[in-house]
Amino acid sequence: MKGFMVLIEKEWLSFGFKFATRADHGACVGALLPAKEDAKGDASNDSDSVTFPASSNFTSSVNKASVATFLSKAALRIKNTASAAKSSVSDRSTDDLRDDTSATYTGSSEKSPIFHQFLDCVYQILRQHPDKFEFNSRFLKRLFYHHYSCQYGTFLCDSDFEASTLLKTKTWSTSVWDYFLSRPNEFKNPKFDPSQDSEVLFSNFSDVKWWFELYGRSDEEMNGLSNSLDRKFAQLRLGESLPQSDSESSTGT
């Protein structure tokens, strides 16, 4: 499980995958993040932006006025969705929207479920090789949830430089890995067999199922037709093998 965490840290976070843009965290994150600094280190002078002072304790810096302002903006966004969509400026960048939280956020044009697809691929391999992974499917499901929840600072930024220098989420926020490591028994796979940990895993592309747990459904609801077809094909293969065995036994006698 720790190895998978290191993989995400190296291949996704340190590599510079734009989690904030692809997940479309949007103005909700912009209202809670400290204001960005430009290349010269000058702070933003936008008086309408909801900013927080730099502090090692982020919770203590949140005052009632800023929270009330954020909630009022969110309520206004919900109430005026139709009219805001017509008057929005489509060519504004995501960075500008974070700095100017007084403007109505209309969504990122660069959002994409890339990390979702990656986790789905891992789930398919885990389902086909249930004894090869130390973590279970609940681990992947909670990782998917916190990718969008914004409860932890791990996935709030678009680059490692942004997380460590500009927004400094590594300083004032908690890592999502602390959540998983604080309750490891919930995410351990009881079928895991460490003695068979030296093989290369290959995925069967014809055996792909819906990740029903992610959508809060049962396997029968989402994979019922696929499962029934698998059973029928298995019966057909069994029926084809029976005549061959009978003919072999008759020739032997």
TrEMBL record:
Residues 1-215 form the Myotubularin phosphatase domain. Residues 92-101 have a biased composition (Basic and acidic residues). Transmembrane segments: none annotated. Pfam families: Myotub-related. It comes from the Eukaryota. GO terms for molecular function: phosphatidylinositol-3-phosphate phosphatase activity. GO terms for biological process: phosphatidylinositol dephosphorylation. One of its GO terms (cellular component) is cytoplasm. Residues 89-109 are annotated as: Disordered. SUPFAM superfamilies: (Phosphotyrosine protein) phosphatases II. InterPro entries: Myotubularin (IPR030564), Myotubularin-like_Pase_dom (IPR010569), Prot-tyrosine_phosphatase-like (IPR029021). This is Myotubularin phosphatase domain-containing protein.
